[in-house]
Amino acid sequence: MPEPTPAILITSFLLILSIPLLLHLIIYNTTSDTLPTILLVGPSGVGKTALVTLLERGRPAATRTSQTPLTVEVSLPVKTPVASSRFRSPNDPTWEVTKKVLIRDTPGHGKLRHYAIDSIGITQSLHGIIFMVDAADLSSDNGDGARQTAEYLHDVLLQLQKQVTDSKTSKARKEMPVLIAANKLDLFTALPAPLVQSTLELEIAKVRKSLSQGLPDSGVESKDLDASEEKEWLGEYGNDKFGFSQLQEFGIPVKVLGGNVTGSDGSDVQQWWDWIGNVL
């Protein structure tokens, strides 16, 4: 058997060196389009953009009202587990990539909320939605704050529900988790997370009733009217009471968790980090 020539030996040696390097480049230069995305929505002034800077830089920064969506890449803290990597070794070269996620911040002004609603249907690799609220703005002393927040949350949840009910395929749709991030819990006037949940559920029930009463009742056949009303009804149709648990059948698990982006004792967003890790 003839011995390999020097040219063959050199070529083989270069291949042995280049293949691992090529794999490394493929793994670590993953394009942002393939990273999972979390959509961040909520009314103006609740702290969304401050949260984005905190997640990205490790500290919140002074912000101003957003006019356009902003997408940033963030890495989960080392101690925050990722559900999809629970059996993956930290020595696995793909482990670091699984700790990265895109956060898409959307404007909260009433005239700009179409960015959030539109993003629900077009965002690639959407893994969840964070709806941020000001827990200090939901108290009974400020009915407008609770009502306006509930109206926006209703629209977001209804858009998610319609994606399921309007689907023309019988293929099971993956869950779309929603986190209601109750911000500013460091303030004395802030409602705790359980009260934030019950307050929003009560207000959403009022929104549903108001919208159903506003449907046209002339020139439309009864069966068509019933179908139209059911399509625009969030949660269990016909139930006067609303609870986030009603959205489970549509694959929309909702969780309410408290925290604060800023505060005299610093930030506390670990529960939100844990939720993000759990949906990745």
What's the arrangement of secondary structure elements?
Layout: H1 6-28, E1 37-41, H2 48-57, E2 70-75, H3 95-98, E3 100-105, H4 114-122, E4 126-134, H5 143-165, E5 178-183, H6 193-213, H7 222-231, E6 254-258, H8 270-279
Parallel strand pairs: 1-3, 1-4, 4-5, 5-6
Antiparallel strand pairs: 2-3
Percent of residues in β-strands = 5-15%
Order of helices and strands: HEHEHEHEHEHHEH
Apparent shape: globular
The helical percent reads 25-40%
* Most strands sheet: 6 strands, mixed
Tally of helical runs: 8
- Classify the secondary structure makeup into a structural class: alpha/beta
Mean pLDDT: 84
- The strand line-up of the biggest sheet is 2-3-1-4-5-6
Number of beta-strand segments: 6
Assembly annotation: single chain
Summarize the structure.
The chain has helices at residues 6-28, 48-57, 95-98, 114-122, 143-165, 193-213, 222-231, 270-279, and strands at residues 37-41, 70-75, 100-105, 126-134, 178-183, 254-258. The protein is α/β, with parallel strands linked by helices and 280 residues long.
